[in-house]
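Example 5.3 — Asparaginase domain-containing protein
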Amino acid sequence: MESSSPYAQSVRVLAIGGTIDKVYFDAKSDYEIGEPQAGAILHEAGVAFDFVVESVLRKDSLAMTDEDRTLVRARVEAAPEKHILITHGTDTMTETAKALGEQTDKVVVFTGSMLPARFRQNDALFNLGCAVGGLQALPPGVYIAMNGCLWPAHRVRKNREAGRFELIAG
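Solution (predicted structure tokens):
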């Protein structure tokens, strides 16, 4: 556990990869998935709840397979915590969320970022904070926290042209 508080729930962070964890490798002039950033962000924020970070995959979400999504589902189901935060690449976050199906006894919130958390200006901190708020306030189910909004996972999509997530009508 990264924090120790007797009065707040425990959160399991499942780090899947994606832009939030990307690191720039100058020698290659490329980005690669590095260590999960969520734990450091939560620690620096001084959160008042216990959390554990589990690195599940280090993949760009475009490289994820059905087997990877099955693994994520298994990790969610096996987690003893009732509050699960999943950091994930934004391109296929909704697909992985749908693969979880209906989680009837846990609050599962996916989040990520359009820019690496290690960048000075990024959306990772805000999105992570929004996701933590959702974990505390939402009933059991699967959600996505991006761009300052929380949505049921089956009601949202990424609008690549606008560079943000949006609610699906209907």
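Remark. Confidence is low (pLDDT under 50) at residues 1-7.
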